[in-house]
Amino acid sequence: MLAQEIVCGTSPTSHVPCEQMPAPTWSEARQLAFDCAIPLASASVPLADAIGYVLATDVTAYQDLPHYASSAMDGWAIHGGGPWEITTPGLPLSPGQASVIATGGLVPEGAGAVLRKESGQVLDAGYGLQLSLKPDAKPGETLPGRHIRPAGEEARAGNVLVPAGTLLNPAHIALAAVAGHDELQVQRKPRVAVVLTGSEVVTSGQPAAGQVRDTFGPQLGAVISQLGGIPGSQQRIGDSYEEWLSALGGPPGAERSDVTITTGGTGKSGTDHFRAAVAALGGHLLLDGVAMRPGHPAVLAGLPDGRFVIGLPGNPLAAMMALMTIGEPLLAALQNQPFRTAGHLTSGADVAPSPGRTQLIPCTFVHGLAFPASHTGPGMMRGLAWADGFMAVPPGGVEAGQPVPVMPLPWTSAWTRTWTSAGSQAQATIDFPNPAGRYAPWHG
Q1: Which of 236, 239, 147 is nearest to 199 (CA)?
Q2: Any alpha helices (H) in 191-315, and if so which ranges?
Q3: Which reaction equations make up its catalytic activity (predicted)?
Q4: Chain CA centroid to CA 405, Å
Q5: Distance between first and last Cα of the chain
Q6: Which fold has domain 343-441?
Q7: Confidence tier at 440 by pLDDT (50, 70, 90)
Q8: 171: part of which helix (H) or strand (E)?
């Protein structure tokens, strides 16, 4: 959902045509992508479907937990100090009476304690069964309240059991069920459709000369999930304007996405139709190009129906860097998550300057150092495949031993989140693993 009309600028009041403005820096582009969206409305979902979502409203206890006094042991509910006459289970007890009770059973009216079966013995007294303490019973077995779980021991009616902002796990769901909830109000996740373009792209086997293998289709859905989105439809089109227009308009009868990601077609040649298709649909560009490499021709647009369109470059590494620059903060904003700032690690190598643009370089994290990977050209994936994150090297470059901004990749162990309640806003922290298996703190 669009927060406001921000057209290619870094200010809410900026309406300067994109082509007349310099491309925003990497950090400006990330902030702009975050600021242009407002959180999606929350939704009520069944308990079993709520795992992995962020809770939008507190889960409270409808009644005391437990809501009745229950036995903590198998044995007998007793009234008084004994011996006791055995009576029918479930009936109120008079002084000197006892009745069989199981763990979790309702403690009958009049019972002051539960005598566990290991501590009691039942004998035929001639006029009926009689319960008494065993000679070796532990002291205090008949004290008032012994082996009874009182009502409200776990929570009182109205207590907050799970606060809003919690990332729900199975234990939270079990607790909500115990409290009597059937559905939970959660922050909705954005549904993300994908449009894969390029008539030269093949989806299986070894590509012939002039063809390229599809690197987006098999993995984009997983990355979308790791960024908190819900993968939607995936459509393949050629390079014609008509195909672009139809794809961005949405398949007839399909569930509407919140975000559409396109691959390729973000250049400015006669065969690149992203901008023309967006304009024909009444949309406008929010961001057109970023001063970074790879991924400079990344584009972000808004459509009249509230959808966002992220245009990724056609080269695989460039596309992934563009997705982390624009897509990650946009999806975070739509989920009411905080803006993820870059941390800093010490650079393990010199990186030469690249005037006017940030260099995004896949890297590995070793003992608090960030080492740039090899094989990191815009069309390469080998370096990214073994990386922990990427360095955002400023235009002036960086020398070994100097701090450098870094971001983890969403499929690595460095991409961890600790959720705490802060009103309706979830707070996130990130840790970096070192080779010893311990975690070094992320320093923002």
Answers
A1: 239
A2: 220-226, 241-249, 274-280
A3: adenylyl-molybdopterin + molybdate = Mo-molybdopterin + AMP + H(+)
A4: 23
A5: 28
A6: Beta-clip (2.40.340)
A7: very low
A8: helix 170-178
What's the average model confidence in pLDDT over 240-247? 92
What is the Cα–Cα distance from 77 to 341, expressed in whole angstroms?
60
d(CA 375, CA 357): 20
CATH 2.60.120.10 fits 70-149, yes or no: no
Radius of gyration over every alpha carbon of the chain, rounded to an integer in angstroms: 31
pLDDT mean over 361-383: 91
Tens of pLDDT along 227-239? 999 999 889 988 8
**Residue 378: which pLDDT band, with cuts at 50, 70 and 90?**
confident
Would you say residue 164 has pLDDT above 80?
A: yes
How far is it, in rounded angstroms, from Cα 165 to Cα 163?
6
Q: How confident is the model at residue 255 (pLDDT cuts 50, 70, 90)?
A: confident
Q: What is the DSSP letter of 105?
A: P
Name the architecture of domain 51-64+154-187.
Alpha-Beta Complex (3.90)
Which superfamily is assigned to 18-41+188-334 in CATH?
A: MoaB/Mog-like domain (3.40.980.10)
Q: Where are the alpha helices (DSSP H) in 208-273?
A: 220-226, 241-249
Domain residue ranges in the chain: 18-41+188-334, 51-64+154-187, 70-149, 343-441
From the list 357, 362, 360, 361, the residue with the least C-alpha distance to 395 is 357
CA distance 356 to 308: 28
Please name the residues in contact with 2: beta carbons below 8 A apart, sequence gap of 6 or more.
Answer: 36, 37, 38, 302, 306, 308
Q: How far apart are CA 417 and CA 429, in angstroms?
A: 5
pTM comes to 0.80
> If you average pLDDT over residues 333-350, what whole number do you get?
94
Between these two residues, 413 and 340, which has the higher pLDDT value? 340
CA pair distance 208, 72, nearest whole angstrom: 72
Contact between 297 and 246 under an 8 Å Cβ cutoff? The reply is no
Looking at residue 397, what DSSP letter applies? -
pLDDT band, very low/low/confident/very high, at 304 (cuts 50, 70, 90): very high
pLDDT of the residue at 217: 80
The identity of residue 17, as a single letter, is: P
Q: Return d(Cα 297, Cα 325) in angstroms, integer.
A: 12
Burial pattern 17-33, b for ≥16 Cβ within 10 A else e, equals ebeeeebbbbbebbbbb
Distance of CA 208 to the CA centre of its chain: 40
- Judged by DSSP in three states, 360 sits in strand
Task: Look at residue 197 and tell me whether its pLDDT is greater than 50.
Answer: yes
